[in-house]
Amino acid sequence: MARLVMKFGGTSVADLERIHNVARHVKREHDAGHEVAVVVSAMSGKTNELVNWVNEMPKVAGSNAQIYDAREYDAIVASGEQVTSGLLAIALQSMGVDARSWLGWQIPLKTNAVHGAARIEDIDGSDIIERMGRGQVAVVAGFQGIGPDNRIATLGRGGSDTSAVAIAAGVKADRCDIYTDVDGVYTTDPRLWGKTAGASKAQRLDKITFEEMLEMASLGAKVLQVRSVELAMVHGVRTFVRSSFDDPDSIDSSDGANPPGTLICDEDEIVEQQTVTGIAYAKDEAQISLRRVSDKPGIAAAVFGPLADAHVNVDMIVQNVSEDGSVTDMTFTVPSSDLEKAVSTLEASKESIGYEVVQSDPGMVKVSVVGIGMRSHAGVASTAFKALAEKGINIRAITTSEIKISILIDQDYAELAVRTLHSVYGLDKE
Amino acid sequence: MARLVMKFGGTSVADLERIHNVARHVKREHDAGHEVAVVVSAMSGKTNELVNWVNEMPKVAGSNAQIYDAREYDAIVASGEQVTSGLLAIALQSMGVDARSWLGWQIPLKTNAVHGAARIEDIDGSDIIERMGRGQVAVVAGFQGIGPDNRIATLGRGGSDTSAVAIAAGVKADRCDIYTDVDGVYTTDPRLWGKTAGASKAQRLDKITFEEMLEMASLGAKVLQVRSVELAMVHGVRTFVRSSFDDPDSIDSSDGANPPGTLICDEDEIVEQQTVTGIAYAKDEAQISLRRVSDKPGIAAAVFGPLADAHVNVDMIVQNVSEDGSVTDMTFTVPSSDLEKAVSTLEASKESIGYEVVQSDPGMVKVSVVGIGMRSHAGVASTAFKALAEKGINIRAITTSEIKISILIDQDYAELAVRTLHSVYGLDKE
Question: What pLDDT does B194 receive?
């Protein structure tokens, strides 16, 4: 017997039939004797409809400002999850399972005052825990809480994952199951080997650490919102990514069963550490190089301050030690869509920064080797460099952290590079 | 300067353009210096969509019971008003008017525990009053409050009228304006004179008492929910029925202006009392007569108990004093749609009631003469009987109250009877 939080996204609750299917998943866990809380998103498409209304309303009312009150946005958009949570509670009741819906303000799930993108500050899980103990399923409207102003606050897009992890922390759950349209986290993108069945060499990971998942998620393996992984790491919430498409009746939910999926957990729980866990990549990166920048204190601030003001999201940053201490080269990446804005911003700041020329290249990809085991294994980076060199792939830039090596290369070589690295680190499926 | 509550129904907020139009009405009152709270319904059709989902969900989940938890119904259905109140607040803000939305639980508007058809128990208007005093428009989601279980409770269909009157009482408003698809309450149904423009002799009433409006509303003049009129009467809320189709810019909202509409108010406020205020009628009534019922104590209970159990809504009841104290005739009306059920119920109880024969006639209409002035004027009833007799209209049954006379006649004579009475009491437009 365990205490579980289950989370289902918008596609899983898109209509009454799918909500019934979700209820079957929940009933299965409930019937296996587990204490269950479910967190649901709005019906697929509903949030977009509501957000569009919010965006259109000022225009219709004749305002050129196109602004809206984020507190009203929250009250409007949170109604989507309110509907789904009620419908799922009714579905469960109709199947003989005791259930009730919980809105953010009823729990209460308290947030800060940043409406539209609120952060969770506190959850009182006591009422839910007490009712779960009596066999009642808690159906929680995701994405929402209540701010210090006693008004509904939403957690920002994708916030239902974050809600689920926060609820799991609040009720001290043994596991938070994220039901999604993939059946787990893979060593890399399975589509890299084409669409032929069985051709893919990517393998589903049974377990991955929070730290690795953060690197994988932020690097393009978009299974879970980054914020939810951070929260899971902070509170040690064991988070299990699994498929919502599996037939509920075919799954064994008893203690000790091992359903397909990937557990995101603390590294202590992973007995056999792999050196490298996965290969992530992010396409549509653009490289910008500033040549002969004067190498003086404050130069980084002079470069990146104006870019931040222009809302350009800068990623990899490489600055070499200058040869004579006077001028250096500086290279960094931005999303390709931001390239034009970034270059014009830099050109406008040419005098204050003090550089000779700005060069840019839009067609880049960042490939990252991720693995918590590389902390204790030497030679991981050189293995990558050697393997890429053998394929004739030119490395534009390199950055490293404790558990990842990121390499910037030409986009044309993206698939080849990922497949090569996947193979050289022994991740290929037998 | 006055404190106003304005109420707009689902048709008035059916889309963003119409919400903008509502905002123009609100801005007009706000700009005239009034303190304003607005109560809104859900967008037209939205409540039905949500209610259908609630009704369908148990079937989809495989339950034959077709029941649902009224607390979940409330959470789901109340989301409709939540969306409109937020959108109207944004529309007002976009037009430069300070505004915020209020959900039932935020005010709080406290109800009893009867989810789905809750009664209002208490309203704390202090926050809204304080903010109205600072020039902020309160946009209140109608139809909803919060129950003693800290869950959303709805007031039942048409509950937005009731919300508006309750809010008006809670904030001590000078007037509650109900914007609707008619421009007021008429002496009778204007359509009785056909569709030719100008042919109608019905007149809009400038004022009508709460008591008269209750009789008019429950007798078929469906301008306002009966519950909201009752509440207005109890709390003395001056309620003004007016058109939502009037161009907001063409209306004078200054103090002392006299926009078109009908004020429902205390009789003290009506200087010149008419003897008869209006003629109401209800079609599709069926008459049932029990012949030679044994005239003993408890006989009425024996007849109407089984009908109540069968959810048959009995209206006019006429029982004559029996000639010899042993048997009597008993006549009453039910909606035509309930006739079959009523007759079979009575036949099943024939022995316990003790009557000889049951007769019924489905095609009846109830015509009612309503007027608070008839309390102090004799001869009102005889005027009606004489006028109908002159037209050859046969009266089947009569019931009277202090301020109304109801007459049951054959449906064929409905229009003739109403037009005749409208004329004989001097209500015809010049």
Answer: 83
